[in-house]
Amino acid sequence: MSVTLILTAAVLSLCTAIMLLGNTVYSPAAVWKVLTGENIKGATFAVRTLRLPRMLSGLLAGFAFGMAGSTFQTMLRNPLASPDIIGVTAGSNAAAIFLLIMMNLSGTAVSLGAVLGGVLTSAFIYLLSRGGKFEGGRLILIGLGVQAMLNAFISYLLLRAPQHDVPAAYRWLSGSLNGVQLSDIPMLAIIIIIFSPITILLGKHLRILELGENSAVTLGVNTDRTRILLILSAVISIAFATATTGPIAFVSFLSGPISSKLVGAGTQNELPAGLVGAVLVLLADLIGQFAFSTKFPVGVITGILGAPYLIFLLIRMNKTGGAS
Amino acid sequence: MNNEHQLKVEHITAGYDGRTILKDIELAIPVNKISVILGANACGKSTLLKTIARLLKPSSGKITLDGKGIWTFPSKHLARVLGLLPQSPVVPEGIVVADLVSRGRFPYQGLMKGLSREDHAAVAEALEIMGITNLADRRLDELSGGQKQRVWIAMALAQDTDILLLDEPTTYLDITYQVEILDLLTDLNRKKGTTIVMVLHDINLSARYADYIFALREGCLVSEGTPSEVINEELIKEVYGMNCSVISDPVSGSPFVLPKGRHHVLDSCLA
Questions:
Q1: CATH class of the region A2-320
Q2: Nearest chain A residue to B83, by CA
Q3: Which segments cross the bilayer (chain A) (predicted)?
């Protein structure tokens, strides 16, 4: 519990920092006045139009990425099994890029397309890997294959794209809080308010699923129903988050392992993982904005953090023969 | 000893991917007794146990608990009566003993609540019966094979079911641990009246520890009864395709199988 409190405090501090910092640093009092409706020249635009959507999207998307990633990793008992590695995110990306480039759509249509792409890709992977009996390893391999296919499709789209569409596509692919507008937030917030309680409530079932199919059935878990509910919650949350900020690299992948280190192995960690996700995104965004002379989008910073861990995991798995 | 759940296998035919493994099996599990399912490799022992535990849906026939098909029970409800220790359970990384054992309480827990006082008591009792109270805070991956197996059985005990199925609980263990596990299961059966059904490989230990034996061959039930009724030279030949002598175990008085291979058999013993 104390870990959750500390993480909550960290998230709140980072949210505050994002609201206060920028080209001009505003005092907490000024920010508060703007948020409660007062008009202050300059501050109103910076706080309401730039910083508030940035902070809220980082918070919500980070939370969604973290919780969904951790759910997948625990359910499939494999740290590689996060949605950004097994093709779910790639499904959203492919759909979004297709709509951006081939259909010349933008805004809500692209977002909804991304959600649909993520959900359909997951259903496809799940059905392919089910084949009579559910196996985690098979799902991961099939997911990696589907991811490769979708990435090839994305490359093809980018090659065919007219020059002026390419930057928009790349902005989508790199993951950023820059372009987010306040009107994008309510939908994401509603989705997270609906689906994260489902994930947290099923946390206990997830700890049983983790013991393997046989033990889970024996202990009275309706395994198919639980798995489908958990996958749906995770996929829908992550697809909406991706539709808002683009895929922020490795947040899903990193949050679960970090939070499970913090709360201790075997403890329910869906909520802490969500909070860690939010911390990662907000912190990486602050670093990207202020640490260097050039501004980097948040996905670049999380990518730099996540890549070494992925390499470390692959090396370790290579040593242990894939069993983890 | 108020455990009187009747578990029956009624004309079960079952298998995987269209391949039939069990053929029209009909049997009743003796209440409050230890039963052992014997048979050669791939004869369907584990499949039978899995079908009883609802891990595999039979293609025809049904398993009934107190006259009702087990697939009609709500899953948590059934999990309070019927438990299973699978052959190779999956260990979550880094998990500690007490945590794992407490997961056996899942069928009793509500959606929102944590472990109740009753749950804690059941976990403590399970650890004590298995003699692993001192290991409660240890990580599972640090324990020896025998200790691990006791932890898994403790988890099944915490589930507090009247019927306990075990798929080869002694495989891969040294003889000392094999006997120890079987002794602990016998204690459990005598103290609480738990009906135990297990698959074992060792015929002689089975003959000692089982009250009742089911012998399978190629998916069919070929014989059932007490060890002394069932185990004889003809049955071993039929089930395992092996010649042997059966004597009385000088330690327990149960039947004891002495295999006869092609070598190291005295002339006086050749039939």
A1: mainly alpha
A2: A218
A3: 53-72, 84-103, 109-127, 139-159, 179-202, 228-251, 271-291, 298-315
Residue B269 predicted with pLDDT over 90: no
pLDDT of res. A324: 42
Is the pLDDT at A322 greater than 60? The verdict is no
pLDDT digits over B96-154, tens only? 999 999 999 999 987 777 788 899 999 999 999 888 999 999 999 899 888 899 999 99
Residue B30 CB coordination number (10 Å): 17
CATH number listed for the domain at residues B1-81+161-233: 3.40.50.300
Q: Give the DSSP per-residue string, B171-206.
A: TTS-HHHHHHHHHHHHHHHHHH--EEEEE-S-HHHH
Nearest to B103 among A201, A211, A264 (CB): A211
- Alpha-carbon distance B261 to B270, whole Å? 10
Q: Do A214 and B112 touch (CB under 8 A)?
A: no
Instruction: State the span(s) of chain B assigned CATH 3.40.50.300.
Output: 1-81+161-233
Is A174 within 8 Å of A299 (Cβ atoms)? yes
| Secondary structure (3-state) at A45 | helix
Would you report the helix, strand and coil content of chain A in percent, each value rounded to 5?
75, 0, 25
Chain B residues lying within 8 Å of A208, measured CB to CB: 103, 106
Contact by Cβ (8 Å): A86, A147: yes
Mean pLDDT, residues A217-231? 90
Residue given tokens 């909550």 in the structure block: A8
Element (H or E) spanning B9, and its range? strand B7-16
| B54–A210 C-beta distance less than 8 A | no
